[in-house]
Amino acid sequence: MPMPRTSAAPTRRATALVLVAIILGAGACGLTKKVYDPTRWVYEKKDATPAKLDRDMTACRKESIDLNKLAPTSSQRIDRDKFNRCMERHGYTARPEED
Question: For residue 74, what are the domain limits?
Answer without folding.
Answer: 10-96
